[in-house]
Each structure stands twice: as C-alpha cells, then as structure tokens.
C-alpha cells in the first residue's frame, strides 16, 4: 500500500488557544483511541510532535535566514492508503488535527 | 474504562498531582505547580495516544510534573540569578525521593490537607469553592462557571483572591489544632457537597451521570468522617444524602443514556445496599441539636428512597423538610423545591402560591430550573400563556442536550396530564 506523509501545519497564530481542561483531555484521549481503532490498517507510524532542530548545509549557518521548521510544522505521521483520497480521509478524521488554526498536508511518499 | 485509563483519569490525576506537589513545595507555588501539572497531562496525552500507556501512569505523571517544576524554577533562577538558586535546591531536595518511590507518602492525606488549605478561613467562601474545584477536582474556569451559575470573569476574580491568599500563607498548615480543624469543617463539607452535586446533576450530555465523581466525593467525605474532629452529625448527614442519592443514580437514565424523571424511574433498579448505607448514616446523624441543610436533604432523599411508588411518596414530609431547610438556610431554590412538593401534595394552585411575590435573584431567574418549575405549575393551573412563556425560557437556558430533552418530556407530560 502506498504511504503518505502527513504534516500538521500551523495556519494562523494560535498561541492564544485555550489550554484544554483535564476533562477535555480525557475526551481527546478517548476520541484519539477510537480513531486509532477505526483505522488499524492505515496508521503505519503515528509519528509525533516536532521539537527543536538545526539545519545542516554546506553553507555557513549565517547564510540564513532559515525559518524554524517547527514554526511551520507541528508534527508528522505516516499513513498507508490505497490512494491520496483515502489518506486524506484518515488524516481528516484524526481528532484535533484539522481545526481552526491548524491543518494537515498529505503528501505521497514515492517508494523506490 | 477506555483503553486502560479510568473514567475522569485526567481530572483526578490533576487533583492528586497538585495536592502532592503543594504538600512538598508549598501553597505559595500553587500557580507554577498547576502549570507544571497541566503541562505534564498534555505531555501524557501526546505521548500515550501515539505510543502506549506506561505501567504506572500516576508515577509517570508525577515524574514529568516534578521535572517540569524543576525546569521552571531553574528558568526563574537564571532570570533572577542568585536569589532563586536556593529555591531550586529546596525543590530538588523536597522531591528527591518522589520520582523514584511512588506513591510518595500518603496521597489521601495530601488530598485532605489540600482540601483544608482551600478552606483557609481568610479566603472568602465563594473563592474557597472555586479554588477547590480548580485544584482538587481539576475543573477549568469555564467548567467551574457553569457549575456555580456564574460568569468566567467572576471565577477568575475568585480564583485570584484565593491564590493570592494562599501565596501569603507560604505553606500548608502542617498540623491543624482541633479548633482550627472544627472551624474549617463546614467549608470543607460544602465543597464535598458541591463536588457530589456536580456528579449527580451533570450538565454534560455525553456523560450524563458522573458516578465516579460522586463516589470520589463520598470517598473524601469518608476520609473526613474517619478523623475524630470530622466525625460530626453534619458530616454523617452529608454522607447519608450522598449514599441515598447515589443509590438512585443508575436508575436516573435509561439504556440509551437518557435522563429519566423521578416518576419514570424503575424503582427496582435503586441500589438497596446503598440505601441501607445511607439510612445507617442518617440514623447516626440524628444526634445532638444541630439540624443542618444536610439533615434536611438527607431526610428528603430518604423519603424518596422509602416510597414504594411515585404516587405513594409522602409529599407532606418532603414539603416539611424543605420548610425546615429554608429556616436554616433561606434560599429561593428551597422555596422552589417546596413549591414542587406542595403542588404534588395539595395541588398546583397551592404550589404556585408558595412562589407568590418571590422576586428570584437574577442567577435563578435565568436558570432552567426556575423557568421549568413555573412552566409546569402554570400549565397545570391552566395558565397557558404564562406556561408557554416559561416553557420557552426553560428550553433556551437548558445547559445541555440531555437536560433539554428531560425538560421537554417533563413539560410535555404536564401538558398531557392536564389534557386528560
């Protein structure tokens, strides 16, 4: 099955987004598990949130400016699907991924 | 239980972690502690959903919260240079054994101490309730606002007051004198009562009945009753009413999770063992001269539990209990309930007469309870226009779909009864 890279994109500044309450976290946890159970065949790698990193190039770092990758991309995961539409469907239903201020970019990974 | 975590896991862990850290690091660091706990829970959510739950989730959370606490204090220390360095050492020492030996100390004891800290006398009552709901029960500001019939701005204000008072206190009273203990008991009981009511009268449609929360309120109340100074008739009456309500909890919803009206409930589903436990505490509470609101409410709950059918309910005794309750704690809510009991006992006209001339405070006038009772009584009296007005208002102010559904049925029933 083809694989798709899903990148969580921060669309707008949602710095002021309210912190979830513990009760809401419980709800998110339960929804996320239901989603995992719904797509057992598709979820190849649930990936994770991205932390800090560094760009490595032949040029010296001062040749920037480089945008911090995590400012654009919050996290990633890898989904297996028959086609792009199916991968989009899986990603779209992932709780908390597609919402105001956040979206997901679904990209096919070409197998060698 | 979903995927290995108990119901309300996050909220309960929040309360436990805050209590454990406050005990070790002091109430003056409450806000930093709450941030660290919040951030540990978010980390758990991210890590456990993608991977799996660790063998001991509570220990995992304590370790993460503790580390975040240290990081934050180090960060503050870098900012303020030398001054805070000492604090970091203190914190590291205080929690040194924590992450490795879990549970560190007696968590129940930590919770009880936190409860008493929240009930510090110099904090206004309404701020005590708010800080307890925030720190011990893990509710956020909007959830608290809903529970207490108030605005979020108001909750923030009350929270701020409680926190600044706790900051000044520097540390939790390690050992209370018997006098201090007794003086705070009543505040502690109101918080436990509120915690119970939150579970019993849930306003969340998805988990219409939060039995776990009620059981936790009962557990905390039992801890209180096991302390010699806490074992008073009022505490026993509080336990009685909790058990007598809990006994009927499962019967309050049908198989589809819909809330049921008292007259619709299958009384054979009431938990007889819980009723026995409740009656035991009620008997124990009938001691001394102090008749409290909890005695009144336990008495009312006992009447319901002992009635073989809705029709056989001794409404005269229930109305009497509400009247007593009003004497000790005058409140328009009790008048409203008494009006309902009198309407069942002597008819809707007399029920409505109880409310004659009562100017409800705005928080009550705007609540669905007030409008629904008036809609029902007016309908039964044949005042169709007034009934419709209150019906519409009640439906608009229903806090959740489950409550709205219940109201709709209750008001429809009263319409049909009159038509018959």
Instruction: Say how many strands of chain B there are.
Output: 0
- Cα shape of chain A: globular
Distance linking N and C termini of chain A: 13 Å
| Secondary-structure element string of chain A | EHEHEHE
* Oligomer designation: heterodimer
Helix proportion of residues of chain A, in percent?
25-40%
Let me know the average pLDDT of chain B: 83
Radius of gyration of chain B: 24 Å
The residue ranges of chain A in which pLDDT falls below 50 over 5 or more consecutive positions are none
* Helix proportion range of chain B: 55-70%
- Summarize the main sheet of chain A: 4 strands, antiparallel
The class by helix and strand makeup of chain B works out as: mainly alpha
Q: Most extensive interface: pair and counts? A: A-B, 19 and 25 residues
Q: Which series of helices and strands of chain B comes N to C?
A: HHHHHHHHHHHHHHHHHHHH
- Which segments of chain B are poorly predicted (pLDDT under 50) over 5 or more consecutive residues? 97-101, 204-209
Q: Name the beta content range of chain A.
A: 25-35%
Overview of this protein structure:
- Chain A is of the alpha+beta class and 112 residues long.
- Chain A contains three helices and four strands.
- The longest helix of chain A is centred in the first third of the chain and has 17 residues, at 22-38.
- The model of chain A has no long low-confidence stretch (mean pLDDT 84).
- By secondary structure, chain B is mainly α.
- Chain B has helices at 9-25, 30-50, 57-80, 82-94, 107-118, 125-135, 141-147, 152-169, 178-200, 211-226, 233-247, 272-285, 293-306, 315-328, 332-346, 348-354, 362-365, 368-381, 384-397, 401-419.
- The longest helix of chain B has 24 residues, at 57-80.
- Chain B is globular, with a radius of gyration of 24 Å.
- Chain B starts with 8 loop residues before the first helix and ends with a helix.
- Mean pLDDT of chain B is 83; it is low at 97-101 and 204-209.
- The A-B interface holds A 19-30, 32-33, 36, 46-49 and B 2-3, 5, 7-11, 13-14, 38, 41-42, 45-46, 48-51, 138-140, 142-143, 206.
């Amino acid at each position: 099955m083809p694989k798709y890279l899903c990148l969580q994109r921060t669309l707008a500044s949602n710095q002021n987004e309210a912190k979830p309450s513990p009760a809401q976290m419980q709800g998110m946890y339960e929804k996320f598990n239901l989603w995992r159970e719904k797509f057992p065949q598709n979820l190849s790698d649930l990936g994770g949130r991205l932390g800090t990193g560094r760009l490595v190039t032949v040029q010296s770092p001062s040749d920037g400016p480089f945008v911090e990758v995590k400012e654009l991309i919050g996290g990633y995961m890898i989904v297996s699907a028959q086609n792009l539409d199916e991968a989009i469907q899986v990603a779209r239903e992932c709780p908390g991924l597609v919402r105001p201020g956040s979206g997901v970019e679904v990209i096919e990974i070409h197998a060698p | 239980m979903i995927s290995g975590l108990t119901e309300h896991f996050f909220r309960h862990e929040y309360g436990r972690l805050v209590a454990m850290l406050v005990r070790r690091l002091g109430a003056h660091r409450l806000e930093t502690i709450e941030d660290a706990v919040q951030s540990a829970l978010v980390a758990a959510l991210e890590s456990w959903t993608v991977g799996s739950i660790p063998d001991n989730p509570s220990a995992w959370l304590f370790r993460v919260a503790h580390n975040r606490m240290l990081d934050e204090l180090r960060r503050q220390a870098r900012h303020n240079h030398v001054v805070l360095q000492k604090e970091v050492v203190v914190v590291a020492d205080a929690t040194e054994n924590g992450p490795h030996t879990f549970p560190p100390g007696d968590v129940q004891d930590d919770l009880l101490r936190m409860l008493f800290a929240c009930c510090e006398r110099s904090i206004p009552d309404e701020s005590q309730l708010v800080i307890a709901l925030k720190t011990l029960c893990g509710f956020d500001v909007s959830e608290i606002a809903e529970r207490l019939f108030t605005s979020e701005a108001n909750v923030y204000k009350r929270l701020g007051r409680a926190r600044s008072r706790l900051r000044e206190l520097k540390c939790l009273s390690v050992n209370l004198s018997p006098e201090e203990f007794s003086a705070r008991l009543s505040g502690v009981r109101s918080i436990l009562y509120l915690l119970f009511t939150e579970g019993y009268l849930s306003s969340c449609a998805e988990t219409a009945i939060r039995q776990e929360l009620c059981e936790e309120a009962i557990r905390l109340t039992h801890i209180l009753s096991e302390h010699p100074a806490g074992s008073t008739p009022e505490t026993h009456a509080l336990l009685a009413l909790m058990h007598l309500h809990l006994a009927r909890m499962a019967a309050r919803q049908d198989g589809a999770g819909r809330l049921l009206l008292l007259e619709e409930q299958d009384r054979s589903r009431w938990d007889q063992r819980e009723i026995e436990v409740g009656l035991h505490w009620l008997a124990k509470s009938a001691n001394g001269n102090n008749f409290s609101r909890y005695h009144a409410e336990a008495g009312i709950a006992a009447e319901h539990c002992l009635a073989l059918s809705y029709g056989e309910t001794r409404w005269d005794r229930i109305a009497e209990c509400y009247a007593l309750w009003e004497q000790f704690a005058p409140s328009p809510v009790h008048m409203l309930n008494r009006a309902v009991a009198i309407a069942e006992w002597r008819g809707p006209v007399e029920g409505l007469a109880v409310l004659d001339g009562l100017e409800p405070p705005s928080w009550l006038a705007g609540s669905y309870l007030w409008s629904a009772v008036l809609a029902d009584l007016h309908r039964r009296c044949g005042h169709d226009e007034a009934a419709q007005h209150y019906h519409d208002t009640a439906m608009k102010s229903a806090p959740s779909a489950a409550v709205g559904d219940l109201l709709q049925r209750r008001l429809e029933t009263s319409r049909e009864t009159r038509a018959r």
